[in-house]
Amino acid sequence: MKLMMLQGLEGRSNNVVSLLFDCLNLPCADLGLDSDPLLHWQYHPDKYVDHVVLGKGPPGGSWQAMDGNVLTISLSRWMELPGMDYRSFGGGGPPTCRNSRASVASMAKYYSEYVKLKRLQENFRCGTVVTDVKPLANDQWLVTGVEHAGDEGALDMPFHYVTSHLVLATGNYDRPNKLKVPGDSEPYVIYSLLELERMVKQNKLSEHSDPVLVVGAGLSAADAIIACRFHGLPVLHAFRRSSGDPGFVFRQLPENMYPEYHKVHQMMTDGGNSYKKYKSLPEHKIIEIMPDYKVRLMGPGDGGSAACYVIKVSAVIALIGAQPDLYFLPQSGVGLGVKKDLPVASRSNPIEVEPFSYECTEAPGLYAIGSLAGDNFVRFVHGGALAFTSHIHKQLSDCEASAAADEAVEV
Ligand SMILES: Cc1cc2nc3c(=O)[nH]c(=O)nc-3n(C[C@H](O)[C@H](O)[C@H](O)COP(=O)(O)OP(=O)(O)OC[C@H]3O[C@@H](n4cnc5c(N)ncnc54)[C@H](O)[C@@H]3O)c2cc1C
Q1: What is the CATH number of domain 178-320?
Q2: Burial degree of 61 (CB within 10 A; 0-12, 13-18, 19+)
Q3: Cβ of 103 below 6 Å from ligand 1
Q4: Which residue has its alpha carbon closest to ligand 1 atom 48?
Q5: Which Pfam families match (predicted)?
């Protein structure tokens, strides 16, 4: 019956609860409508479930670790949390309109402010790293980790929790994909935009440097090209597809909303005629990275045969996706994915969860939400949170009811 109700709903999630929640929260958002939510939020203190949130950094997850200058792909209202208008917190700087894209920095601030304004701080233990998760007898989980001491010189504090309900929300972005060629860990090979900005700040890169080699053809690689252009750095841009490939992600984005990505796409297709410090290298592979800032590439040579050649660069920035880091789980999470024999991977192998509870199909008491469960946009994370909370709440209520019944029998 529930599945019947969901027929006809569409969205960028394969999880039915996430999809339904999104359709109620942001009705017809993908058609460009800014309609009021069909949901009403009400606080029920009696339904409170005792919990603690562990995380490496401040509230906001990956948003706190991305380059703050980049604009979001989503409109800011699509990334709001329940009961707090993006405009109302006011700390993000322009733009504050809910119907435009925001800066990553302002979203990061919105998420940390949310925890304060909703008085959730007591539940958050920031600066904590979970290092081990083990199943115990009696359907419980032992969670071990360390809390980083704030003060310099102070010791990190180990901690343990035993719980019957453990929710994984550790995201997909902790392990950037490496180039997997000799030399891919040379110090001048970097895998994040923040690192590029750091190198500019430290004057390791300037407009007089050798070119920065950007590898990748997605939105993050485009962000790196935009950043290089902003700083006046010369750029060589290597990607595997041909320049006219119809599969580039840029083609899915409306030009009026994402002009900067369309500009990059244009540079990729015209080879760089529109910006003299940029040169595109379509159909290119990185073969080897040498310690002396030289990189061996393979690209289409004359007459259709592949040709190898060497270029001199100042840095290589490879933005070719990322994977979750589930080292703390038994077998590093292998067995939890949709493809059981492979590691959990962003997009190709999300954690398999029960559709209405988000409980892992292979591990009762363990739940997964967000990008780990295939919900790659913030607007779909709420569905997972609702599903697991409802499931846990029901289980706890059932336990209380059966304990009360036992007591009544004893009396
Ligand atoms: C460049 C980029 C741009 C994006 N733009 C958008 C956008 O415009 N709109 C949108 O809706 N979504 C966007 N996303 C996706 C968005 O970031 C995620 O959907 C969102 O952050 C929710 O993810 P999450 O809660 O699953 O995990 P995350 O936000 O990734 O948070 C997981 C957190 O868990 C921490 N963690 C991991 N392992 C441990 C451990 N062992 N111990 C303690 N903590 C740990 C991580 O360090 C991280 O802080 C973007 C993502 C990227 C990378």
Answers
A1: 3.50.50.60
A2: buried
A3: no
A4: 61
A5: Pyr_redox_3
